[in-house]
TrEMBL record:
Assigned GO CC terms: cell surface; membrane
GO BP field: cell-matrix adhesion
Superkingdom field: Eukaryota
Name of this chain's protein: Uncharacterized protein
Organism: Chloebia gouldiae (Gouldian finch)
């Protein structure tokens, strides 16, 4: 919602710390300009303390106002989502590029759509910062990339083998070519998880975010005992939908009995 008229007076009368999250979330550049740079920086810091969620337009405006006289020395006191609109070179005065991307990993990835130019540029700069010349990424670099791992192309997923799997399992969705690459890597068995036929319930728990990507050819290789144990003990804590869980349950049923027998005992959804 937009800020009420006389916003600067409201700040003066109530004090920034007492402003509600809804008021802080609805600020506008026009209102912010009337507050003054120093007071506005206090406002921005209050937004971080109150964990205010801001959209692209609000963050762009906030960044413009906060950096009016250069990058503040106490940059880490400001909302982390601002980093999505900043470049590592801008951040250089307060930290190195590796630290920059560690902090980016703590920002809200949903602020920028996957196809947003800023998000694509962040990935390119991250790869340059980590000095990754080819398409192979190790576990340490994957950790530094944070959620930017979710934007890596299928060539990186294939070349990196199992190094990216645990990080990829935190991603909410994938492009079709990414899904195919993930399936190929998992099917190969050349990962720390081994071939699907050797997976345990714990393995499935570790890879739960990737289970929707698995096709029948992989699911059928997983030991039924592992699937059953995972469904009973871990599935409730996963982000899988009922439909996705139903697909897994279906793989537990002998093919000729799937239609007439229903779900195995204790695994009804």
């Amino acid at each position: 919602m937009p800020l009420p008229e006389g916003f600067s007076l409201l700040i003066f009368l109530l004090g920034i710390p007492r402003l509600s999250q809804s008021v802080l979330q609805g600020f506008t550049c026009a209102a912010a300009s009337a507050v003054g740079a120093g007071r506005f920086q206090e406002l921005a810091k209050a937004m971080r303390k109150k964990k205010v969620r801001l959209g692209q337009d609000e963050l762009s405006c906030l960044l413009k106002m906060v950096t009016l006289h250069g990058i503040p020395k106490d940059w880490d006191s400001y909302p982390q989502d601002l980093l999505l609109f900043l470049s590592p070179s801008d951040y250089a005065a307060t930290g190195n590029c590796s630290q920059f991307f560690i902090n980016v990993g703590k920002a809200n990835m949903d602020v920028l759509p996957r196809e947003a130019p800023q998000r694509q540029q962040l990935l390119l700069e991250a790869l340059e910062c980590l000095r990754i010349p080819g398409t192979r990424i190790n576990k340490e670099s994957a950790e530094l990339l944070g959620w930017l791992v979710c934007d890596l192309g299928e060539e990186y997923i294939r070349s990196s083998g199992g190094s990216l799997l645990k990080d990829l399992s935190q991603c909410g969705s994938f492009l079709p070519e990414q899904e195919e690459a993930i399936r190929d890597v998992l099917s190969s068995g050349n990962t720390t998880f081994g071939p699907p036929a050797a997976w345990s319930a714990f393995t499935l728990s570790e890879l739960s975010g990737l289970i929707p990507v698995l096709d029948p050819s992989i699911l059928q290789q997983i030991p039924k005992r592992a699937l059953t144990t995972w469904l009973r003990n871990f599935a409730w804590d996963s982000s899988l939908s009922r439909e996705e869980l139903a697909t897994i349950v279906g793989e537990l049923l002998p093919r000729r009995h799937k239609r007439e027998d229903g779900c195995p005992a204790g695994l009804e959804i």
